């Protein structure tokens, strides 16, 4: 019985790793594996990605989900105007963004409504929680071993459900919810939501 359970657990872990590392169907394991710590190789692989995923993952983590909601033309331009970060951090943020995308796709609410918005605001709220801890998310650890993100499963599920409910609720003064979601005031309101969550210390540095 123990051997069967261990085997099933190992299979599940491998499947989860595959999902987390699935960056837009590209060869993510080859791109973001610890075997590619060589910066030249990693940068070359990163350059092959659609810049939109890098821009979205970066701006969401910078707590600017309202910019992501403006659409690709806007958020790519904002991203291009910024100072470049390390290629390892860029890769780790993509892994985190795609992990959250994959995870909230499985929760029990209609994520098809405002899917992109929910993902961006969930990433931003996670960043907000980390910033309140006066520490940083350990992107090096995520880059080397993305399976550590399973510690966030329950946290991301709670955050995404609360945020999705909030951003799906009509807002007085806005004919369309999409208009509200593009406002920094919307982000400020999301930050004020009473979500009682603590980030695991093992993911911080």
Write the layout of secondary structure elements.
Layout: H1 2-20, H2 28-32, H3 39-46, H4 51-61, H5 65-68, H6 72-80, H7 87-104, H8 115-132, H9 139-144, H10 153-167, H11 177-181, H12 184-191
Q: What does this molecule look like?
A:
The chain has 205 residues and is mainly α. It has one domain (20-203). Helices cover 61% and strands 0% of the residues. It has helices spanning 2-20, 28-32, 39-46, 51-61, 65-68, 72-80, 87-104, 115-132, 139-144, 153-167, 177-181, 184-191. The protein is globular and about 50 Å long. The relative contact order is 0.13.
Number of domains: 1
Computed over alpha carbons, the radius of gyration is 17 Å
**Helix share of residues?**
55-70%
The pLDDT mean sits at 81
Global outline: globular
Structural class: mainly alpha
SSE topology string = HHHHHHHHHHHH
Please summarize what this structure is.
With 205 residues, this protein is mainly α. It is built from 12 helices and no strands.
Key phrases:
single chain; 205 residues; mainly alpha; 12 helices; 61% helix; globular; disordered N terminus
